[in-house]
């Protein structure tokens, strides 16, 4: 699971890849369609898709000469679950701090 989280966060660390993921929330798209709004070559976009695919965030299938990409949200849900544990940790710590500050004599 740790390797998958590492790959997910690595893939999400790049704004281009985050943009591609956002575009894929609208549905399956070709690599060319993902590259177009980014003014990027097919080869450049393909490298980003390969990173997303390696993290499991994207699946790719070939239809004729076109490579279609589809979002796979499972790794995002796993990352969210991992982040949730830290949200709980910090909320508990901050609640404790707030209680201590309220008890402090004025």
State the main characteristics.
alpha+beta; elongated; 3 strands; 13% strand; three-stranded antiparallel β-sheet; 106 residues; Arc Repressor Mutant, subunit A; 65% helix
Structure, explained:
The chain has 106 residues and is an alpha+beta fold. The protein contains 5 helices and 3 strands; from the N terminus they run ααβααββα. The protein has helices spanning 2-12, 15-24, 31-35, 42-54, 74-103; strands spanning 29-30, 58-63, 66-71. A 3-stranded antiparallel β-sheet has the order 1-3-2. Helix 1 packs antiparallel against helix 4, helix 1 packs across helix 5 (74-103) and helix 2 packs across helix 4. The longest helix is centred in the C-terminal third of the chain and has 30 residues, at 74-103. It is elongated, with a radius of gyration of 20 Å. The mean pLDDT is 92.
Task: Note the topology.
Layout: H1 2-12, H2 15-24, E1 29-30, H3 31-35, H4 42-54, E2 58-63, E3 66-71, H5 74-103
Antiparallel strand pairs: 1-3, 2-3
Helix pairs in contact: 1-4, 1-5, 2-4
Task: Summarize the structure in short.
The chain is of the alpha+beta class. It is built from five helices and three strands.
What is the percentage of strand-forming residues? 5-15%
- Termini, distance in Å? 48 Å
Query: Radius of gyration over alpha carbons?
Result: 20 Å
What structural category do the secondary elements indicate? alpha+beta
As for the CATH topology, it is Arc Repressor Mutant, subunit A
Give start-end ranges of low-pLDDT stretches.
Answer: none
Mean model confidence by pLDDT:
92
Order of helices and strands: HHEHHEEH
So what's the CATH class?
Answer: Mainly Alpha
- The number of helical segments is 5
- Which architecture name does CATH use? Orthogonal Bundle
CATH superfamily: Winged helix-like DNA-binding domain superfamily/Winged helix DNA-binding domain
Specify the helix fraction band. 55-70%
């Amino acid at each position: 699971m740790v390797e998958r989280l590492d790959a997910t966060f690595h893939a999400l660390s790049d704004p281009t890849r985050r943009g591609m993921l956002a575009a894929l929330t609208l549905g399956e798209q070709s690599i060319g369609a993902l590259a177009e709004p980014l003014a990027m070559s097919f080869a450049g976009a393909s490298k980003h898709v390969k990173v997303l695919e390696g993290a499991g965030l994207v699946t790719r299938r070939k239809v004729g000469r076109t490579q279609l990409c589809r979002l796979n949200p499972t790794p995002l849900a796993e990352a969210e679950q991992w982040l949730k544990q830290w949200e709980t940790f910090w909320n508990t710590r901050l609640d404790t701090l707030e209680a201590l500050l309220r008890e402090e004599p004025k």
